[in-house]
Specification:
The structure holds three protein chains of three kinds. In chain A, 41% of the residues lie in helices and 21% in strands. By secondary structure, chain A is of the alpha/beta class. Chain A has two domains: 1-90 and 242-263, ATPase, nucleotide binding domain (Nucleotidyltransferase, domain 5, 2-Layer Sandwich), CATH 3.30.420.40; 92-237, Nucleotidyltransferase, domain 5 (2-Layer Sandwich). In chain A, the strands form two sheets. A five-stranded mixed sheet of chain A has the order 3-2-1-4-5. In chain A, strands 8-7-6-9-10 form a five-stranded mixed sheet. The radius of gyration of chain A is 19 Å and the shape is globular. The two termini of chain A are 12 Å apart. Chain B has a domain at 14-184: Rossmann fold (3-Layer(aba) Sandwich). Chain B is built from 15 helices and eight strands. Chain B has helices spanning 14-35, 49-54, 65-71, 75-84, 93-103, 109-114, 130-142, 162-180, 188-212, 221-233, 238-256, 316-325, 334-346, 367-378, 397-419, and strands at 41-44, 59-61, 120-124, 146-149, 267-272, 291-296, 351-356, 382-386. In chain B, strand 3 (120-124), helix 7 (130-142) and strand 4 (146-149) form a beta-alpha-beta unit. Chain C has a domain at 2-153: 3-Layer(aba) Sandwich (Rossmann fold). Helices cover 52% and strands 12% of the residues of chain C. Chain C has a four-stranded parallel sheet with strand order 2-1-3-4, with helices on both faces. In chain C, strands 6-5-7-8 form a four-stranded parallel sheet, with helices on both faces. In chain C, strand 5, helix 10 (242-249) and strand 6 (253-258) form a beta-alpha-beta unit. The chains are: A alpha/beta, B alpha/beta, C alpha/beta. Chains in contact: A-B, A-C, B-C.
């Protein structure tokens, strides 16, 4: 049985192929202006990598912001359900998932089968999400991948950031740079601000271990450490956190297929 | 940014120190009462304070406690606790801060000392919807007896209708009956005395206000803000009257010797809406331009706009009904409009600084209306910008000051032009 | 369904109705919200006309009512500022939420219709004191309407108006109850259209059309059984079917709704021999809005709907800055979830901006219930 999951996010799109319960292939590509085209591209990429062709795939489920724009998917499932399902596949012991994507941030609770039991999502706003980190990396001229590590190495301590709106934070950060505040301290403050917003979100669903962090920001060790500190527990980071959604979609595809295929 | 914020106000009066001491005195009284197993009331909405003092009921009010926390830079921290429970950041910070303190697993030492848990919760829908919602939630949380005091609105201005006064009066009577269940016997003589003291306090307040109209003003908004506590929270007590008698003397002396808040008073301002409790120094900020914030609108809260002679100690509940329903913070604006017409006329002001508070649906929504009304009456301009008086988390000092700078400079240049 | 199509058309093009009222020489009195007794306006020979928002973005109102006020009311006020409500001869408001009350002085100052009146109803219900106070308010309002219309309101006329409006209420309720069955003869989105049309239409015509809807619904063949979870939508005003339609498109079955544009409008009837007493009783024993006290009455009502309509999940729709529902959403979510009913709070602008994200939440909620 071969199934595929495809996740069209606001910043990047991912595809995962599951074959006999194993990840057989995966691909990741930036989301272009045209989601339909992007969907085709990322799907082709994963097919090329695995040497499969469209007709080999038994069932395709799409998810993510552009999930309804995937013409070749048989079903679409919300990214919230997919993140729970995908995380549960990686870590069967997971009960709480924090997913921080490009535009939004979700705290999800699930049961042993990866079925969602409760969730909250932050407002439609780049605050508390990947987008703000990209803006800041650009502004501070620090590579995105190094942001988290650098934020843990503050010089004089974290600089308080008063606003959580990325638009205003940008001008506040420029102000601090002019005042000569070290970039690392500003980063520390930004990661702290992000972590405390996310913490509030997690408190709203209630945290039960194990906690898995997925989405782009899971790679930002500065934010992750601060969240762990606030909660007093260690988080598990999904290996390849960005593909959790697509993987969840592929698992859903498998489950649906199992239901419709007799035996 | 942190260095520049001057969180304390610079005050000029001796009596202001006493007024601020009365805050501590009262909260200590409440804590002591709790220790002696006296039932403590949490009150929401502008329930007439005279009733608490007449019956010697220890009370923590929503209208004051969050301001204390804000002054200690603790408000944002507690608001976040409420947000963790699912309240959005768009609700009033008075409420989120109070809710947060009530729902916190652990209080800081400062709050702990001043925040006894409730035995009774009383809420009135005056002046806004939120005033009832927070206490409902907390009554459920504490499994606490709850009383709802319904207040009609007042769209009639000063000509308030008799049936509305009577309705509110009846509801106050019902409150007294409710309180009796907890051992607080209704004491008519004490209520009369409380209203008499409240009336006396209002008379003193009006005399002080008259002196403050003079240029240079002997007392500005920074002192006014701190001296508001006895007027707003302790009416009906002897201590409030004592403080205001001394305040009147001091203000009179300063006025007679021509002592102002600044050496040369060039511009007179009034603050509309809530000044930032976590950074009261902002009320002094315009002084660098010779501009004085003479008063803040807030000083009139709690029915201080009422003619003292409209209170009648023989009819305590009716008097308190009038005092509440004529309060300028009523959900409809007729009395606020009247207040502003009077302020601009009598205080000879040059400009108004008005702030929008995100969580508030009451005063800020009328800022433009006040601006237009005042401008039509007297050509006095008004600047409006965003500033939350309680929540310090999004305070942007530079932006706020830039607004004030621009406004005051424009007033100064206009004045300069007029003189020549 | 032809009858439903006609009603839907009136919602989309209310001008058709307004022209009709005008042709009859009727005064049109705009009102907000459900605590304004329509019957008194009607008995004075005028048309009570509930105000809804429009699809256009807000342009002028933001500088009058600061942007931290309910977007629905800003939208209504914006329409007034833009001159789109010129057909109104007057406005009647009541004492409910802060946003509605703010409109009173703004309307008097900036819109200046010949009439702008606010009924000072009590917010405490089920109280004898509130009853006698409200009775005076109601009498004052009756006098005001007589003066403004120049037409005496006799008790007979008032009784006739009440029975006409009661008939609308009971017919709407009949149609609403259709969703107890599966397949339901009417969808949630269709019900919303029907109620909104009935609210703005002449009641005689509305009653005929609702009767037709009930007849035609019985013969419908296009409705399929819905295996999806049964959902109750409650919260701030919903005056366009987008959200309800979204839930239904995602496979949810909007089994019941508790909105001021649906069931809250018709749930109870005005009952009693003396018309003024009946109206007074109606308003003071009706706790259908979170601005009213006691909250337990509303909670009990919601729980009854949940039981009666076999609801499996509740969606709380909060328009941004709508305090009564923001608070109630937090409070009732905790209570209802303890009884095993999941609740999702959805916050959005009146125009449902960011519908993409709403879609994700709604879909995930339905997947969770499935």
């Amino acid at each position: 049985m071969i199934t595929a999951g495809i996740d069209i996010g606001s910043l990047s799109s991912k595809a995962v192929i599951l074959k006999d319960g194993q990840i057989f292939g995966r691909a990741l590509t930036p989301t272009g202006a045209d989601s339909v085209q992007t969907a085709g591209r990322v799907m082709q990429e994963v097919l090329d990598k695995t040497g499969l062709s469209f007709k080999d795939i038994n069932f395709i489920v799409s998810t993510g912001y552009g999930r309804v724009l995937v013409p070749f998917a048989q079903r679409n499932v919300s990214e919230i359900s997919c993140h729970a399902k995908g995380s549960s596949w990686f870590f069967p012991s997971v009960r709480t998932i924090l997913d921080m994507g490009g535009q939004d941030c979700k705290a999800i609770r699930c049961d042993a089968t990866g079925k969602v039991t409760n969730f909250v999502m932050n407002d439609k706003c780049a605050a508390g999400a990947g987008r703000s980190m990209e803006v800041m990396a650009d502004l501070l001229q620090i590579p995105l991948a190094d942001l988290g590590r650098e934020s843990l190495n503050t010089v004089r301590g974290e600089q308080d950031i008063s606003t959580t709106c990325v638009v205003f934070a940008r001008s506040e950060v420029i102000g601090y740079l002019h005042q000569g505040v070290p970039a690392n301290d500003i980063l520390g403050g930004l990661c702290e601000a992000l972590a405390s917003r996310v913490y509030a979100l997690l408190k709203r669903v209630g945290v039960e271990e194990d906690l898995v962090i997925s989405g782009g920001i899971a790679k930002n060790i500065g934010v992750v450490r601060r969240i762990e500190q606030k909660l007093g527990i260690n988080a598990k980071i999904a290996y390849e956190p960005q593909i959790v959604g697509a993987l969840g979609a592929a698992v859903f595809a498998r489950e649906i297929l199992a239901k419709i295929m007799p035996g | 940014m942190a260095e520049e914020v001057t969180s304390r106000a610079a005050t000029v009066l001796q009596t202001t120190v006493e007024a601020s001491r009365s805050v501590r005195w009262y909260y200590e009284k409440v804590t002591a009462a709790k220790k002696n197993n006296k039932p403590v009331v949490w009150a929401f909405g502008l329930v007439p304070r005279e009733i608490w003092h007449a019956l010697d009921i220890p009370v923590v009010t929503l209208e004051h406690f969050p301001l204390l926390l804000a002054a200690k830079q603790l408000s944002g921290k507690y608001s976040q606790v409420a947000e963790e429970r699912g309240f959005t950041r768009d609700i009033c910070a008075y409420h989120s801060c109070f809710l947060g303190a009530a729902l916190s697993d652990q209080l800081d030492a400062y709050t702990e000392k001043r925040f006894p848990s409730p035995d009774i919760i009383v809420a009135s829908n005056f002046p806004c919807n939120q005033e009832v919602k927070t206490p409902q939630y907390l009554a459920e949380h504490y499994k606490c007896p709850f009383f709802y005091l319904d207040a009609p609105i007042n769209p009639w201005g000063e000509e308030i209708k008799k049936h509305a006064v009577e309705y509110y009066e009846t509801n106050l009577e019902r409150l007294l009956v409710f309180l009796e269940k907890f051992g607080y016997r209704p004491d008519w003589a004490a209520l009369q005395e409380s209203v008499r003291l409240s009336q006396h306090l209002l008379r003193l307040w009006n005399k002080i206000v008259d002196y403050r109209k003079k240029a240079p003003t002997p007392m500005g908004a920074a002192d006014g803000y701190i001296c508001l506590y006895p007027l707003f929270q302790l009416p009906g007590t002897g201590i409030a009257v004592e403080i205001y008698e001394r305040l009147l003397n001091e203000v009179r002396q300063r006025a007679e010797s021509g002592l102002g808040v600044v050496d040369e008073e060039r511009v007179r301002l009034i603050w509309a809406g809530l000044p930032p409790a976590y950074n009261l120094g902002l009320l002094n900020y315009p002084e660098r331009y010779g501009a004085v914030v003479v008063q803040s609108e807030l000083e009139w809260i709690g029915g201080a706009i009422l003619d003292p002679e409209a209170l009648n100690a023989k009819k305590p509940l009716e008097s308190l009904a009038r005092k509440t329903l004529l309060d300028f913070v009523n959900p409809t604006y007729s009395n606020r409009i009247n207040l502003w017409k009077r302020l601009t006329r009598e205080f000879k002001i040059d400009g108004i600084i008005a702030v929008n508070k995100r969580g508030c649906r009451n005063l800020p929504a009328g800022n433009r209306l006040i601006k237009d009304t005042v401008y039509q009456e007297s050509r006095v301009p008004m600047i409006i910008f965003d500033l939350d008086g309680v929540d310090n988390r999004e305070y942007d000092d530079a932006q706020v000051k830039a607004n004030i700078d621009t406004f005051v400079e424009s007033l100064l240049s206009k004045k300069g032009g007029r003189k020549q | 369904m032809k009858s439903l199509e006609t009603m839907r058309r009136y919602v989309r093009e209310p001008q058709l109705l307004i022209n009709g009222y005008r042709a009859l020489g009727k005064k049109i009195i705009g009102y907000r919200c459900l605590y304004v007794p329509e019957e008194i306006i009607h008995a004075a020979g005028m048309v009570p006309y509930p105000l809804f928002g429009g699809p256009e973005p807000i342009s002028l109102a933001d500088s009058y009512l600061q942007p931290y006020i309910c977007e629905f009311i800003r939208n209504v006020f914006d329409r007034a500022l833009e001159g789109k409500l010129k057909f109104l001869d007057g406005l009647v408001l009541c004492n409910t939420c802060d946003a509605v009350r703010k409109m009173y002085d703004h309307w008097r100052t900036y819109i200046k219709t010949h009439l702008c009146y606010i009924i000072n109803n009590p917010q405490e219900t089920y109280s004898n004191h509130a009853y006698s106070y409200y009775y005076i308010e109601l009498q004052n309002f009756r006098l005001e309407m007589e003066n403004f219309s120049g037409q005496k309101i006799t008790d007979e006329n008032l009784a006739r108006s009440i029975s006409l409006y009661n008939e609308t209420r009971s017919l709407l309720k009949k149609a609403y109850l259709l969703r107890k069955q599966d397949p339901a003869a009417l969808s949630g989105a269709e019900t919303l259209d029907m109620v909104m049309a009935a609210m703005i239409m002449p009641k005689e015509e509305a009653n005929t059309l609702i009767r037709d809807v009930l007849k035609e619904a019985g013969n419908r063949v296009d409705r399929r059984q819905n295996s999806g979870p049964r959902i109750l939508i409650t919260g701030s005003i919903i005056d366009q079917p987008a959200l309800i339609r979204l839930v239904e498109e995602m496979g949810g079955m909007v089994a019941a709704d508790d909105l001021c544009t649906t069931s809250r409008y018709f749930w109870q009837e005005v009952k009693g021999d003396n018309p003024m007493d009946a109206l007074c009783l109606y308003a003071t024993q009706r706790c259908l809005c979170p601005c009213m006290h006691p909250a337990e009455k509303r909670l009990a009502h919601l729980q009854e709907l949940i039981r009666e309509f076999a609801v499996e999940g509740v969606i709380y729709f909060n328009i941004k800055y709508c305090d009564p529902f923001i608070f109630e959403g937090v409070m009732f979510k905790e209570v209802l979830e303890k009884t095993g009913i999941p609740v999702m709070v959805l916050e959005a602008g009146h125009d449902l901006s960011g519908i993409g994200q709403l879609k994700t939440r709604v879909q995930a909620f339905i997947e969770m219930l499935w």
